[in-house]
C-alpha cells in the first residue's frame, strides 16, 4: 500500500568549511526541534564565542522560523546552558524553553515572527526535567470521516468531544499554565493568570518518596487528569494527578492550588511472547530508551522503545573454560494498551471453574515493531484527527529514529513498517569525500517533530541539519486521499490551524478539484457561518491556487476578493456615533447591503440620487461614523477607488479582462464606493485622491455609474456603449498601474518553479530569485503611471527604501513596521499574518556562523 522510501522535501544545513570539521562534537549533546499548529518551527543551534580568557565556549541559541523559509532563522534566546526541551501550546502563541539545571522560560509571540518576548522564568532548583507540557484548554474537536458525505456541513464533519480542562478556574473557565516531570520524581506545576502573570508555582512528589527516573512522558485525559508514565529500571511506573484551585476563605485569604497524586497501573515491559508473572531476569536485561503516549489526549495507549539483551546459553566447553558467550540484543518498539482483564480470586482454595473473578485495568502489549538498531527518538502527531475503522481513513503514523541514522514510519494500528529514510545518503567513502561533507557521515537523529496534520515530520540530526520529510502522498494512500485532504483543510479553516503542510503534500494537478469541492461545501452553509469564515476561506483558496502555474489569474482574483471582503466586513461592523449600545438596529450596514443588491439600486445610475433614495428610509444621523476611524480607513477607500479605476481601464483595452467579469469583485467595489460617498456627506475628508485631467467631471460618480452598469449585465459580455464609457473615463483621469500579482517565495516558489528535489538550503543564505524579480513585473495597462516599488498591500502605503519594514514569509509582500502597533481594527486584523497566510517578520540579518 505504501512506498518503501519517504519523500524528503528539503534539507537546511549549517554553513561549514574545512576548519569547522573539529567543531561537530558540539552537537553530540543533541538538539531539539518542535512545530506549532501555525507551522512555525522552534529549534536549537550551537554557536561558539570567546570568553574573557579568549577560549571558545559553546552557546546554545533558540531560533524560530516558518517552515516555508527554513533558511531565515530568528534568534529569540542565547544561553550557555543546554536546551533540553521546546514545547508550543495548542494555539502556537506560547513557547516553553527548558534549560539545564531546571530553568524554564515562557515566551509569548508578538505581532512579528521574530518577536518572542520572555514573559516568565521558573527556576526549579537544578531539577533535571524529563517532560513538560501546557495545560489542556478543554477544547477537543476531531473529524468524523465515516458515514459523512463530502458536501456535508461543518457541524456534521467536525465533532466536539467532552474534555475537561486540566485546571478549572472560577466560573468553570480553563486556567492557563504548564507542568513538568523531573528525573528526581517531582511533578512541577506553574499556574498563570489570564493576563500571563504567575498565579502560583508548586511541586509535589510522585509516589511516597523521591525516586530516580531516566525517561518520562505525560498525557492529558478527557477527565482533566494528568497521566504520567516514567521508567525506573525494571518497571514503568504510572501516576494520575488532579489539579484544583481552592476558593478564597471567608477572611479574604488567597486561594491555593491542590495537587492530588494517585498511583495508576504500572507494569514491567516484556516481549510479547511472555507474560508478566513468568518472565525471569535470566531472559535478558531490558532497558527502556523512549516513552511516548500515542496521543496527547489518550492516556490508554503507550509506546515503549526498549532494548533487550539476552545472554547466550554457554556450552559445556565454555563453562569449563569460564568464558562468556556473546548474547543477542533486540531493539523493539512496543505498543501497550490499557485494557480490562479478568483476574481470578481465591485461586489457591477453589477449583478454577468455581473461582470468582474481578475485572481490573492492566497494560497489555498489543503490537511491536523490531528494529535493527537502537531507537533514540519516537514521534507522533499530537492527535489523530481522522479516527475510524482501519482502512477507512488515513493511518496514524509513528516515527522512530534509530542510531544508524534511519527514520522509520510505522502504522499504529498494526505496528507494521510503512516506509523509511536514510540520512547517510552521500555517495563514496573514505578520502573521496570532501572534508566539508565527511562531517555528516557520523551524524544521527536527535529530535523528531510532527506537523499537526501528521502528514509530515521535521527531523534534526547531530550536525545541526533539519530535514522536512513527507510521510504520506496520494499514490501511497489511495482513493481516500482527496476526501481526507478536504476534511483536514476544512478543519484548518474552522480551527485556525495553518494549512501549509497540507498544501506542500498535495500534487498541483489536484488543486483545481480540491478548490472546487471546498467552494461548493462552503457556500452551502448559512449566512452567519459564511460571513464569519469568508475572508479566511478566500485566503486558503489563494494559497491553493498559486501552487499551479495555470491558476495564477484565479489566485489574483481570490486575493482581491479576500481583501475586499475583509474591508466590507470592517465597514459593516462600524457603529454610528449616535449608537449608545451595541444595537444592530442602529447599524445601517444591513440596510445598505440590501439596498445595493436590490433592483431599484441597479436602475439608478446617479450616485447622489441613489444616496437620497437610501437616506429617505433611514435616519441620516445613524450614518455618521467617528472621524478618527475614518482617518484610519482612508487608505482602504483609496485602494478601492484605484482598483475600480484600474479594472475599468483594463476593460476598455480588453473586454475579456477577468477581474471585470467577476460579479463579486464588481459588487464589492460598488458597495465600498457607495458607503464612502455616504460618509463623504458628513465628513469631506473622506475623499479618494485621483489625478484628474479635467476638474469639470465628477470621476467618483462616473466610476460608480460604470460599475452599476457592469453589475447589471454580468455575467454577460459588456456591450460597446459600456466600453465607450470606459474609454471616455480614460480621458478624464489618470490611473496608476497596480501590482496585482504577488509572487510566492521560499519553498512554495521553488516547488512552483519545478526546482530539483529535494531542495537544499543553508541557514542565512541569500533570498532566491523570486524576491528580486517581484518588482520587475510586466506592465499590462497602457498609458498608466508606473507602479511604485514596495507597496504595502494591506494598508495601501508606499514604503520608502530606508523605512523599517516587515517581509512576509510566504510571498513577496512588504509591510510597514509601524502600522501593526496602532489600535485600528484593520491593522490588528493583519498585524500577525499576511493576506496569503504568511507570517510577518523583520528582513533577515546574517546570523552568526554555527558550529
TrEMBL record:
The UniProt record lists the Mediator of RNA polymerase II transcription subunit 16 central helical bridge domain at: 488-679
InterPro entries named among the record's database cross-references: MED16_bridge (IPR048616), Mediator_Med16 (IPR048338), Mediator_Med16_N (IPR021665)
Query: Could you tell me the keywords of this UniProt record?
Result: Activator, Nucleus, Repeat, Transcription, Transcription regulation, WD repeat
Gene Ontology cellular component terms for the protein in this record: mediator complex
Keyword Nucleotide-binding in record: no
Instruction: Name a single GO biological process.
Output: positive regulation of DNA-templated transcription
The UniProt entry lists the main location of this chain as nucleus
UniProt xrefs under Pfam families: Med16_bridge, Med16_N
Q: Where in the cell is it found?
A: Nucleus
The chain positions of domain Mediator complex subunit Med16 N-terminal read 119-356
Assembly and oligomerization: Component of the Mediator complex.
The protein's job, in short, is: Component of the Mediator complex, a coactivator involved in the regulated transcription of nearly all RNA polymerase II-dependent genes. Mediator functions as a bridge to convey information from gene-specific regulatory proteins to the basal RNA polymerase II transcription machinery. Mediator is recruited to promoters by direct interactions with regulatory proteins and serves as a scaffold for the assembly of a functional preinitiation complex with RNA polymerase II and the general transcription factors.
- PANTHER family annotated for this entry? MEDIATOR OF RNA POLYMERASE II TRANSCRIPTION SUBUNIT 16, THYROID HORMONE RECEPTOR-ASSOCIATED PROTEIN-RELATED
Query: Would you identify the family this protein belongs to, as annotated?
Result: Belongs to the Mediator complex subunit 16 family.
Name of the protein this chain belongs to: Mediator of RNA polymerase II transcription subunit 16
Q: Which gene encodes it?
A: MED16
Amino acid at each position: 500500500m505504501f512506498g518503501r522510501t519517504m519523500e524528503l522535501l528539503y534539507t537546511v544545513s549549517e554553513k561549514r568549511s574545512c576548519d569547522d570539521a573539529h567543531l561537530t562534537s558540539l552537537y553530540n549533546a543533541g538538539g531539539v526541534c518542535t512545530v506549532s499548529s501555525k507551522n512555525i518551527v522552534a529549534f536549537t543551534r550551537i554557536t561558539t564565542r570567546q570568553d574573557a580568557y579568549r577560549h571558545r565556549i559553546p552557546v546554545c541559541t533558540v531560533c524560530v522560523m516558518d517552515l516555508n523559509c527554513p533558511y531565515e532563522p530568528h534568534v529569540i534566546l542565547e544561553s550557555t546552558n543546554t536546551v533540553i526541551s521546546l514545547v508550543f501550546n495548542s494555539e502556537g502563541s506560547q513557547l516553553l524553553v527548558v534549560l539545564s539545571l531546571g530553568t524554564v522560560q515562557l515566551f509569548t509571540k508578538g505581532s512579528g515572527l521574530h518577536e518572542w518576548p520572555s514573559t516568565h522564568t521558573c527556576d526549579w532548583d537544578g531539577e533535571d526535567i524529563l517532560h513538560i507540557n501546557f495545560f489542556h484548554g478543554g477544547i477537543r474537536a476531531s473529524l468524523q470521516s465515516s458515514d459523512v458525505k463530502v458536501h456535508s456541513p461543518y457541524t456534521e464533519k467536525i465533532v466536539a468531544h467532552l474534555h475537561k480542562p486540566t485546571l478549572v478556574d472560577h466560573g468553570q473557565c480553563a486556567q492557563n499554565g504548564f507542568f513538568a516531570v523531573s528525573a528526581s520524581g517531582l511533578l512541577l506545576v506553574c499556574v498563570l493568570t489570564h493576563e500571563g502573570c504567575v498565579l502560583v508555582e508548586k511541586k509535589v512528589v510522585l509516589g511516597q518518596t523521591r525516586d530516580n527516573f531516566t525517561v518520562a512522558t505525560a498525557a492529558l485525559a478527557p477527565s482533566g487528569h494528568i497521566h504520567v508514565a516514567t521508567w525506573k529500571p525494571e518497571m514503568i511506573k504510572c501516576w494520575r494527578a488532579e489539579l484544583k484551585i481552592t476558593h478564597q476563605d471567608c477572611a479574604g485569604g488567597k486561594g491555593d492550588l491542590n495537587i492530588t497524586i494517585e498511583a495508576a497501573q504500572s507494569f514491567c515491559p516484556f516481549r510479547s511472547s511472555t507474560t508478566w508473572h513468568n518472565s525471569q531476569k535470566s531472559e535478558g536485561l531490558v532497558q527502556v530508551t523512549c516513552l511516548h503516549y500515542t496521543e496527547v489526549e489518550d492516556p490508554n495507549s503507550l509506546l515503549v522503545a526498549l532494548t533487550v539483551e539476552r545472554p547466550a546459553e554457554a556450552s559445556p566447553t565454555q563453562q569449563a573454560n569460564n568464558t562468556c558467550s556473546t548474547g543477542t540484543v533486540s531493539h523493539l518498539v512496543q505498543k501497550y494498551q490499557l485494557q480490562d482483564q479478568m483476574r481470578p480470586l481465591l485461586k489457591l482454595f477453589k477449583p478454577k471453574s468455581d473461582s470468582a473473578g474481578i475485572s481490573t485495568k492492566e497494560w497489555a502489549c498489543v503490537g511491536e515493531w523490531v528494529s535493527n538498531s537502537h531507537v533514540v527518538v519516537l514521534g507522533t502527531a499530537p492527535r489523530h484527527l481522522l479516527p475510524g475503522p482501519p482502512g477507512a481513513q488515513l493511518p496514524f503514523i509513528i516515527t522512530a529514529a534509530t542510531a544508524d541514522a534511519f527514520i522509520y514510519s510505522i502504522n499504529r494500528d498494526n505496528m507494521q513498517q510503512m516506509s523509511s529514510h536514510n540520512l547517510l545518503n552521500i555517495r563514496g567513502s573514505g578520502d573521496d569525500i570532501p572534508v566539508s561533507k565527511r562531517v555528516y557521515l557520523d551524524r544521527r537523529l536527535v529530535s523528531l517533530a510532527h506537523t499537526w496534520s501528521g502528514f509530515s515530520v521535521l527531523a534534526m540530526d547531530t550536525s545541526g541539519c533539519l530535514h522536512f520529510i513527507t510521510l504520506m502522498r496520494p499514490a501511497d494512500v489511495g482513493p481516500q486521499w482527496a476526501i481526507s485532504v478536504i476534511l483536514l483543510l476544512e478543519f484548518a479553516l474552522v480551527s485556525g490551524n495553518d494549512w501549509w503542510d497540507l498544501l506542500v503534500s498535495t500534487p498541483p494537478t489536484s488543486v483545481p478539484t480540491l478548490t472546487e469541492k471546498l467552494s461548493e461545501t462552503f457556500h452551502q452553509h448559512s449566512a452567519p457561518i459564511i460571513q464569519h469564515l469568508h475572508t479566511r476561506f478566500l485566503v486558503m483558496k489563494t494559497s491553493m491556487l498559486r501552487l499551479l502555474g495555470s491558476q495564477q489569474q484565479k489566485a489574483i482574483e481570490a486575493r482581491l476578493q479576500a481583501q475586499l471582503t475583509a474591508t466590507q466586513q470592517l465597514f459593516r461592523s462600524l457603529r454610528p456615533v449616535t449608537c449608545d449600545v451595541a444595537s444592530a438596529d442602529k447599524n445601517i450596514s444591513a440596510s445598505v447591503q440590501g439596498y445595493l443588491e436590490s433592483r431599484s439600486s441597479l436602475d439608478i445610475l446617479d450616485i447622489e440620487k441613489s444616496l437620497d433614495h437610501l437616506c429617505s428610509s433611514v435616519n441620516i444621523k445613524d450614518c455618521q461614523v467617528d472621524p478618527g476611524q475614518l482617518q484610519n480607513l482612508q487608505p482602504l477607500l483609496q485602494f478601492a477607488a484605484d482598483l475600480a479605476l484600474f479594472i475599468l481601464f483594463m476593460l476598455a483595452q480588453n473586454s475579456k479582462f477577468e477581474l471585470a467579469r467577476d460579479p463579486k469583485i464588481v459588487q464589492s467595489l460598488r458597495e465600498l464606493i457607495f458607503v464612502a460617498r455616504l460618509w463623504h456627506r458628513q465628513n469631506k475628508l473622506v475623499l479618494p485622491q485621483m489625478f484628474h485631467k479635467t476638474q469639470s467631471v465628477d470621476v467618483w460618480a462616473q466610476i460608480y455609474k460604470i460599475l452599476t452598469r457592469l453589475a447589471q449585465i454580468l455575467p454577460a459580455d459588456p456591450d460597446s456603449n459600456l466600453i465607450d464609457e470606459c474609454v471616455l473615463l480614460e480621458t478624464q483621469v489618470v490611473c496608476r498601474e497596480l501590482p496585482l500579482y504577488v509572487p510566492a517565495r521560499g519553498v512554495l516558489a521553488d516547488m512552483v518553479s519545478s526546482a530539483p528535489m529535494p531542495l537544499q538550503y543553508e541557514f542565512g543564505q541569500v533570498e532566491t530569485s523570486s524576491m528580486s524579480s517581484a518588482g520587475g513585473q510586466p506592465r499590462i495597462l497602457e498609458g498608466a503611471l508606473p507602479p511604485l516599488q514596495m507597496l504595502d498591500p494591506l494598508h495601501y502605503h508606499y514604503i520608502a527604501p530606508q523605512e523599517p519594514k516587515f517581509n512576509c514569509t510566504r510571498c513577496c509582500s512588504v509591510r510597514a513596521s509601524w502600522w501593526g502597533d496602532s489600535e485600528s481594527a484593520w491593522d490588528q486584523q493583519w498585524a500577525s499574518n499576511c493576506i496569503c497566510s504568511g507570517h510577518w517578520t523583520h528582513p533577515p540579518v546574517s546570523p552568526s556562523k554555527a558550529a
